[in-house]
Design brief:
Blueprint lengths: L3 E7 L7 H9 L7 E5 L8 H9 L5 E4 L2 H4 L3 H14 L3 E4 L13 H38 L15 H9 L5 H7 L4 H15 L1
Parallel strand pairs: 1-2, 1-3, 3-4
Helix pairs in contact: 4-5, 7-8
Length: 201
């Protein structure tokens, strides 16, 4: 008996997987056979994907909305496609690209066309990922240049930090004692002390 599966992926918990899920439901894929990950497509170490991979058997059918939902790493997409179609011997249908339907065109020309399309789309998927990362890095750099701070705001220094720092600097107390007095780890105290020294120059 052939089982039909659907795989859905979004990169973050904030992204909406609705469009992909609707496409799977319109194909009448049983809910228990729709697997979804909310993780980056940089590799295939995704729990739901791996779980689905273990469950699929020869001649089963897998639907994905587009090749970038499978992944965004060129080499790994090609490798995973080979595992699915050659080792697991399942069929794959990419809904947004009808040429990527392994159920048809199993002759030499059909296989060649599918391979070419797959390689092009895999390259595009990885290239888009690289472009997104570059835009994010550029956006962060611009924001930092404007004075936008990222991460949690630093905790204010204790009111008596300067007095404790002076005692430590003069060798009257150890770094451990100074850190305990400031209620912080030694590494944090030393970091704050260096930052304080720089600000006083």
């Amino acid at each position: 008996m052939i089982n039909v599966y659907g795989y859905v992926r979004v990169s973050t918990k904030e992204q909406n997987e609705g469009r992909q899920l609707v496409a799977m439901q319109e194909l009448n894929i049983p809910d228990k056979n729709i697997y979804m990950d909310k993780l980056s497509g940089k590799n295939f170490e995704r729990p739901m994907y791996q779980s689905m991979l273990k469950k699929m058997r020869q001649d089963d059918l897998l639907y994905i909305k587009s090749i970038d939902r499978l992944g965004r790493n060129y080499e790994e997409i090609l490798d995973q496609w080979r595992i699915l179609t050659k080792e697991k011997k399942i069929d794959i249908v990419v809904l947004d690209m009808p040429l990527l339907d392994t159920r048809r065109g199993k002759d030499l020309i059909g296989t060649f066309l599918s391979d070419v399309v797959l390689q092009i789309l895999s390259f595009v998927a990885e290239n888009e990922r690289a472009t997104i990362k570059q835009r994010q890095a550029e956006g962060i750099a611009v924001a930092k240049a404007r004075g936008v701070r990222f991460g949690r705001p630093p905790k204010p220094l204790p009111e008596d930090f300067y007095k404790i720092y002076q005692k430590w600097k003069e060798g009257k107390i150890t770094g451990v004692v100074a850190a305990n007095a400031c209620n912080m780890p030694v590494s944090t105290f030393l970091y704050k002390a260096r930052a304080y020294e720089k600000s006083e120059r």
